[in-house]
């Protein structure tokens, strides 16, 4: 288990003065990469071997988000390796060790040329297992997202700032598109209502020049929302479940 220390710096906060979901999400992905590098299976190492990590699912639950100027620590470890997937867990705490929230990420290793997953149990890298820890976190599992085909929607064009180093939409941008669309579609009060837990399931890549239609359904108005993000060809790109305070 490794611990990485951060602070809510200027321009990393949202309009309420709390760490923004976008910065938190990208920080978790950055921590995952730092940990992977430490154990010998980071981006550059895997890319040179013709492999790449793909984020399959992400769940973040933050009962309290740190505020401007506040220090926060992110602990991470690999909890499980199974077939083509590995689970990486996170605990986010303040500088006094008080837990602020937790996260679960599910990753797959794919062959860059075939775009097919690689069986992790057969891949000869002891670093995978060296990164494992027996620690657990008190999170319930992923919700099964279900969005009605006639649920209200909005359409977004993909712009260059949406893209990551691989040339497709950044994983955390999908999360932001989903939660922003829920605010927009349902007219939620941005000061009184904020996400507490967000779950993402990633299905297909989206590229510059395409568009995404975000269809959102209120399962419990002001509380639970499900969203489906589809490309212009009708293919599902991502699914989201968001719980608001």
Short description:
The protein is α+β, with helices and mostly antiparallel strands and 245 residues long. The chain contains four helices and ten strands. It folds into two domains: 2-130, Hotdog Thioesterase (Thiol Ester Dehydrase, Chain A); 153-244, Roll (Thiol Ester Dehydrase, Chain A), CATH 3.10.129.10.
Could you give the topology of this structure?
Blueprint: E1 2-7, H1 21-38, H2 43-48, E2 51-61, E3 71-82, E4 85-94, E5 99-111, H3 127-130, E6 153-157, H4 171-186, E7 195-202, E8 211-220, E9 224-231, E10 236-244
Antiparallel strand pairs: 1-3, 2-5, 2-7, 3-4, 4-5, 6-8, 7-10, 8-9, 9-10
Helix pairs in contact: 1-4
What does this structure look like?
The protein has four helices and ten strands, in the order βααββββαβαββββ. The model has no long low-confidence stretch (mean pLDDT 94). The relative contact order is 0.16. The chain has 245 residues and is an alpha+beta fold. It has helices at residues 21-38, 43-48, 127-130, 171-186, and strands at 2-7, 51-61, 71-82, 85-94, 99-111, 153-157, 195-202, 211-220, 224-231, 236-244. The protein has two domains: 2-130, Hotdog Thioesterase (Thiol Ester Dehydrase, Chain A, Roll), CATH 3.10.129; 153-244, Thiol Ester Dehydrase, Chain A. Helix 1 packs antiparallel against helix 4 (171-186). The two termini are 31 Å apart. Strands 1-3-4-5-2-7-10-9-8-6 form a ten-stranded antiparallel beta sheet.
